[in-house]
From TrEMBL:
NCBIfam families: amt (TIGR00836). Homotrimer. The gene is amt. GO terms for molecular function: ammonium channel activity. Its main location: membrane. The chain crosses the membrane at residues 12-31, 38-59, 101-124, 131-153, 165-187, 199-219, 231-252, 259-279, 285-305, 317-341, 361-379. It comes from Herbidospora solisilvae. This is Ammonium transporter. Involved in the uptake of ammonium/ammonia (NH(4)(+)/NH(3)). Keywords: Ammonia transport, Cell membrane, Membrane, Transmembrane, Transmembrane helix, Transport. The lineage of its organism: Bacteria, Bacillati, Actinomycetota, Actinomycetes, Streptosporangiales. Belongs to the ammonia transporter channel (TC 1.A.11.2) family. SUPFAM superfamilies: Ammonium transporter (SSF111352). The keyword Ribonucleoprotein does not apply. It is a multi-pass membrane protein.
Amino acid sequence: MKIDSGSTAWMLVSTALVLLMTPGLAFFYGGMTRAKSVLNMMMMSFVSIITVTIAWVAYGYSLAFDAVGDGSGFLNKLVGGLDNVGLMGVNEAAYNDTFPMMVFSAFQLTFAIITVALISGAIADRAKFGAWVVFTVIWATLVYFPVAHWVWGGGWLTTLGIEDFAGGTVVHINAGAAALALALVLGKRSGWRKEPMRPHNLTLVLLGVGLLWFGWFGFNAGSELAADATAGLAFMNTQVATAIAAGAWLVVEKLRDGHATTLGVASGAVAGLVAITPACGFVDVWAAAVIGLLAGAICAYAVGFKYKFGFDDSLDVVGVHLVGGVIGAVALGFVAAYPFLDGQQKGLFYGGGWSQLGLQVLGPVAVGGYSFIVTYVIGKIIDKTMGFRVTQEDEVTGIDITTHAETGYDLGTIHSSGVSSLNGPAVPAEAKKVDA
């Protein structure tokens, strides 16, 4: 097997970086929920690592990246995943004669994992954990694997020439549309818009977004699948767009609300990361800056759609990932400068005409529509059979204690030497006695 050791090393690092994003997402989402459901929220991300990994090695890789029309048929693909990723022995194949195919499969697996985990933010505080586990497998099978094939695996959108460098369509629009569907299936949280549902721990939110930002360099620059100049361009574009988006969100907050918040800087950074994802290897740095500016400003307003239209997207998956993904995908129709696959063209501003812009609109519409419809059906079936939503009593009590028999914070422990105080150290029992 002929491989390039530098590119192989870079892809191994990128794979680890992208996997780190899912625990980062767990911190990000966990901090944004109320204290009584922080562990459940984080568990929804971590269990996605388990379920999607099993589905991927069993059949997911084969469904997403096997050649179309190879005569093997769906059932053969379904049971052929183990051999294709090399679990029946060392796979001697190399991707593009550059690095082992096993590394490519592992890299793509991490994308599947975080796409599924992203959806969970829309249904925080109210989803049955068992129903979520079942949903992750079914959704990955019926939605993520086919969409990944359409865009990256030689499917119909690949053939048409859609540009999606690192997953704006496959990951973010896909997950955002699914999040909207599940939010509609499960309905609003008890007390929504009547009770305060603020993030309980903004420190965790900032830690989470820091891990996401760090891991996203593997997500975007790693998607070049080589250690070369395009990977460097994707790396720089990721940083520029994210920083400017975070700043733009803060400016909108300051002008609109009078305060620049930590939640705002975290949300703005994620909006920039999302929007630059499909474009990072196709555009110049100035265009990345514009994409970041648009994403930060527009998504700052888009998170309010849930109040206008009456759907409870708990952690703003729709406003950030769906809207941000559309911004980045459609922007390529205007500013794409470096298309490199057959059928792809430059954007309108670079003399490419209108055809690429049409494709960049078609992709989000097709993927978003498919994901929404199939997710809604999956959600309804699960809800009617095993139930997707916890009882109102469990929701009010808190899913952490009712589902997992744990709490995220133990602030009221009674010590044998005294009684703890939430405002200070434990007070010895002797000090509470009053002399006669």
